[in-house]
């Protein structure tokens, strides 16, 4: 009985592997537009696809980032500056992409740009940080997608949206999780609606990786500043001792991010080049072996696991 089961599981993975390794043809003629290419995953993906011979249209937030990327890549890669929170900037980038791709359309759109707000409890997160996070991580994804969609439909291409494993289970920085849950929901809706147009949507869910966004010193600095600027009633309610313990807990948790960004960019590349891309790619050991199983547990059990090591606020009954 167990042998048959093991053979069946083995067969399933063999068929899946065989199916997923089929690569789309004429990659060198295909255009891919990537947001947030100044650093991190976007930057590495742009270089990776350029090496593979694809036509990369890389959007950077700053001209400096664009210059640095151009210096590291072939003449085929082209850059544009794009702030995903600005409608005019998105419209200009869409026009620029349209002029480049012509009648072929856009094969791939990678919505990668994102920011991390200070890690805090929801109660002391500043409204402006919440709004900014949603603007970049969610509204930016939606606006860029809507601007590029006619071009992607023309190519019967791909949309690759970068969510996070925190888009599957909410812990740490509630507003960041909201933005990524939004990306998951939007991507699921798009996938179901666009199937008849031949457009495929993939979601990338990275675990914890070492990039500019996760720089430990910057993260801790932002966290401290948000606490210091919190209203007095919050400080009284939670207490300084609570914050100190929470801060040190986060500091410990931030040690040892995964440094191999290829785990993530290889998933993105697969989503863009495989004949049969996956709907979801969870990248990193922590994502696959901790967060995904955690997300399937009964809520009460997941709550216990997530909160068991958190300190107690000062003013609790
Ligand atoms: N690192 C992780 O552990 C992790 C885990 C899960 C998900 N993610 C997601 O992965 C994606 C890439 O992040 P990353 O880790 O590679 O961090 P990163 O190195 O900071 O990359 C984010 C990129 O987005 C750009 N950006 C920021 N605000 C923008 C805006 N308003 N318009 C356009 N571009 C903007 C940044 O430009 P500047 O560099 O000029 O600021 C940067 O190039 C994000 O969506 C993030 O949420 C990361």
From TrEMBL:
User: Is Oxidoreductase found in the keyword set?
Assistant: yes
- Keywords from the UniProt entry: Oxidoreductase, Signal
Say if the entry is tagged with keyword Thylakoid: no
Query: From which residue to which does the signal peptide run?
Result: 1-17
Superkingdom of source: Eukaryota
Record SUPFAM superfamilies? NAD(P)-binding Rossmann-fold domains (SSF51735)
CDD domains the record matches? type2_17beta_HSD-like_SDR_c (cd09805)
Cited Pfam families: adh_short
One GO process term, biological-process aspect: brexanolone catabolic process
| Xref: Gene3D superfamilies | NAD(P)-binding Rossmann-like Domain
- The family this protein is said to belong to: Belongs to the short-chain dehydrogenases/reductases (SDR) family.
Output the PANTHER family linked to this UniProt entry: 17-BETA-HYDROXYSTEROID DEHYDROGENASE TYPE 6, SHORT-CHAIN DEHYDROGENASE/REDUCTASE FAMILY 9C
Q: What is this protein called?
A: Hydroxysteroid 17-beta dehydrogenase 6
User: From which source organism is this entry?
Assistant: Microcebus murinus
Could you read off the lineage of the organism from its UniProt record?
A: Eukaryota, Metazoa, Chordata, Craniata, Vertebrata
């Amino acid at each position: 009985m167990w042998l048959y089961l093991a053979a069946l599981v083995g067969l399933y993975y063999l068929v899946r592997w065989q199916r997923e390794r089929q690569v789309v043809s004429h990659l060198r003629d295909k255009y891919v537009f990537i947001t947030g290419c100044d650093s991190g995953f976007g930057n590495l993906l742009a270089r990776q696809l350029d090496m593979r011979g694809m036509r990369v249209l890389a959007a950077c937030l700053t001209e400096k980032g664009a210059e640095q990327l151009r210096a590291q890549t072939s003449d085929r890669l082209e850059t544009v500056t794009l702030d995903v929170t600005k409608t005019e900037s998105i419209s200009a980038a869409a026009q620029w992409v349209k002029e480049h791709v012509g009648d072929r359309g856009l094969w791939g759109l990678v919505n990668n740009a994102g920011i991390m707000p200070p890690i805090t409890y929801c109660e002391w997160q500043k409204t402006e940080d919440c709004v900014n996070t949603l603007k970049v991580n969610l509204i930016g994804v939606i606006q860029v997608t809507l601007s590029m969609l006619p071009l992607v439909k023309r190519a019967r291409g791909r949309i690759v949206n970068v969510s996070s494993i925190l888009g599957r289970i909410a812990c740490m920085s509630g507003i960041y999780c909201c933005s990524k849950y939004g990306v998951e929901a939007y991507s699921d809706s798009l996938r179901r609606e666009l199937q008849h147009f031949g457009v495929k949507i993939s979601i990338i869910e990275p675990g914890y990786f070492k990039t500019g966004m996760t720089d430990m010193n910057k993260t801790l600095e932002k966290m401290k500043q948000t606490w210091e600027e919190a209203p007095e009633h919050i400080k009284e309610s939670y207490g300084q001792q609570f914050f100190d313990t929470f801060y040190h807990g986060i500091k410990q948790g931030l040690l040892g991010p995964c440094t191999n960004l290829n785990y993530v960019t290889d998933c993105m590349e697969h989503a863009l080049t495989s004949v049969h891309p996956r709907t979801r790619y969870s990248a990193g050991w922590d994502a696959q072996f901790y967060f995904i199983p955690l997300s399937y547990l009964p809520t009460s059990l997941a709550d216990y696991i997530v909160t068991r090591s958190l300190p107690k606020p000062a003013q609790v009954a």
